[in-house]
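Honest question from a wet-lab person: if I give you the sequences of every part of a complex, can you actually get the arrangement of the whole thing, not just the pieces? Trying it with mine:
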Amino acid sequence: MISPYITSGPVTGADFYGRRDILNEIAAGRCRASYVLGTRQIGKTSLLRQVETQVPAMFLDLQWAGGRLEDLSRQARREVHRKRQQYAWLPPDDGLPDNLFELLEAANDAVEKARERLWVLMDEAEIWVRIARSDPEVLHKLRGTIQNCPALCVVMAASKSLSEANTLTGKEGSPFLSGFALRYLGPLSLPDGAALLRQEQGSVPVTVDEGLLAHLLALTGGHPLLLQLLGERLYEDGQLRATTEGDLAGILDQAVKTGVFPQDFAALSGPERAILRAVSSDQPLPADCHPTYPHGLVGLGILRREGDGYTIGHAFFARWLQEQADWEARSEVTAASTLTVYSQAEMEQQVRLRRVFAARFNLGELRVLCSDMGIDHENLPGETKEDLAREMIAYCVRHRLLPKLMETGRELRPDIRWEDMAG
Amino acid sequence: MLSWYPLLFLLCLLLPPIPAYAQEAGPTTWEWRTFTAENSPLAPGDVWEFLEDSQGRIWIGTASPIKGVVAGLSGEQALPLIGGAGGLAIAIILGTMIWSRVRRARRLAAWRKGADPYVVGAVIGEPEQFYGREEALTELLRALEAGNHIALYGERRIGKTSLLYQLAHRLRDLSHPNLYLLPVFVNLQMVPEPRFFSALAGAIAKAARRELEQHGQDLSSLRMDSQPTGYDSLDLADDLETIVEALQGATGREPCIALLLDEADKMNAYDPHTQEALRGLLMTPVGGHVKLVWSGQTMDREWHLESSPWYNLFKREIRLSGLEEKAAGRLIREPVKGVFTYDDEAIQRILALTGCKPYPIQRLCSFCVRRMLGEDRFQITVEDVETAWQELQAEDARRAAEGATDPTYRAPRPAWTVAEEETDYDADEEKGP
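Yes, you can. This is the full assembly:
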């Protein structure tokens, strides 16, 4: 029997598991510009392709364009041409400008005229940094275009390298990513990871022993590629067999050869590496560690909360760090750029949490929650539940209690997808 | 070569019982006896096996109870002939023998004129001339059916191209209910980078047109037909959409183009932007209909761009080394079956000298056969192998001295001498034969 697990290329439709909240959020179109930040092979392209199936969208792959603006323009023209079969309100080929930014504005005009929305999905968006290095104006032009095109929702999926765009633009005007809604694309939640392993959305579900399921989810931390690789390797006649040491070594080898771990590591800034080094050798976090770094690393799935501390996101990366990491290698992303995006994401997380607590808890429940957390709510300013939610979250941020707050929230409201709050 | 033994035995079973003779034979014991050129008039290389009874009589047939017995050939014994049925059988046997000898004589004549029973250096195209690699073929087929790209590594002349040919045969024969697998073989050796995408398009279009022709359809308006220069991955994407749609309509199944890229090492020298463009194409919905089998010696995994490395498409890989011993033995014996035979010791020596690698095996065996033809012998011994090995090495040395830039083949050091140079090699555990 052929394995149903997919390890090459993006997955969509029934092969796409989880990510409902981020999908819904993007499809709702509330944000004019979003930056979906994720490590290598975490499923960024699949997410964009899945979005493409749900809303009117043009898909631009900056890698396919080889980082050349003129090829990206051709790709955009081709996309408009193809999608017009589906969305007749898109502009005709004849009037389309050759210049990418002008083309996007022309598309915006047509979309506005039709009172529609068009999602512009940019994959491998970190390549904008490469383009900007040879043409420093390009990021300003892109940012200006996004601001001038209210009918477009731009979603950029990229690794952390895109954060360097802030450094390239910050000296003359606003940082490029300022105003982007920043969402981490971390590992799958455990129920979604389990559904993937069991192929619950497939035509023929796979039988997986409960103990083995828990073991595989613990090993991978819900990383979708690792789940697919393990599934493919362990699949035998409609079920998954138990793992062997050879399987685990084989998966690690596959991940390393495809550049997954080395590239993720290369994108880690110095302070992040110091944190990982401490965690992987069971040492406390460095004393000068800025609390935003662990927050970002958890969002990306590189670290995992475990009790009051942290552990490496999954067993394979932990092993790679211990056996193969070159801790002294040059980092491709600076600490400053990293901190900027992580801080932005952290603030957005706080806003999301505040909204959830204000919407799903009444004032009395919030006061009880504060007491459970050891917070004296009478010392917190504000009278309304919105005020209390905001102050409670601010207190938790100052005292590094956010993970505990989310844990307590999960116990009280298990129906809320708290794991999606992490990003 | 089809063996006539099973037919003969079938004939024996169909013959009517001959009670008179069975009674005459009486209760007796039966044993298999082997006849060769040494103990019978059989020609060198022929090996026959017959049943011999306790009275020294030789039979072709089944052991007790004797349903039908047909007399065979006489060795040292006189063979009883049983009625008309026996005569018929003997006629068949003799006819088969004559046919076999004529065939053998013709093959010998051809070989003496320079034809080689072994395929030395050329790609093996015919499935019946291809030995072993079942595991690799199964894995390749499974990977493609599951929709995965796969990398195939191996040193030069290990049989990668031949394996791709066999994979193409298997893919053509594959009957999948939902998937239509179209093998497309592309040798990148002579493809300059600027023509990379048009070369892929040309090969894919050619294979698709051949298939569509069988359905009475044609492929028109492909960009590759009208755009000889400047053809890039975007053009290929457009052409792929046309091709995939046509194949889908014709076959009623989901098309999957298995792009078998031979000599793909060439891509290591490509501009990273070309590699990015290929990855980008394969990440598109239409690109999802294309699955790569990348075949070469090494894939360059240095990547200095900030984007995803193009090679992360390949989560699976196969490394080809020597053949498994059983398949290697067949590769040695079967091309000369019915004419020459190898001593077991000779076979073991060949396997040891060549590390079970197909090309060295074929080359060494070819030398052995040439030696046999010169001496008019038919049994290849370990001494013959040793002498052939010396001749082969001398030829390589001569070619090297002549300054051949790309010698046909450099004889490898025997497998055990290589092993002895390994730091962790335990000489007591493994000795060369």
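Two things worth pointing out. The first strand of chain B starts at residue 30 and ends at 35. Residues 19-72 of chain B form one domain.
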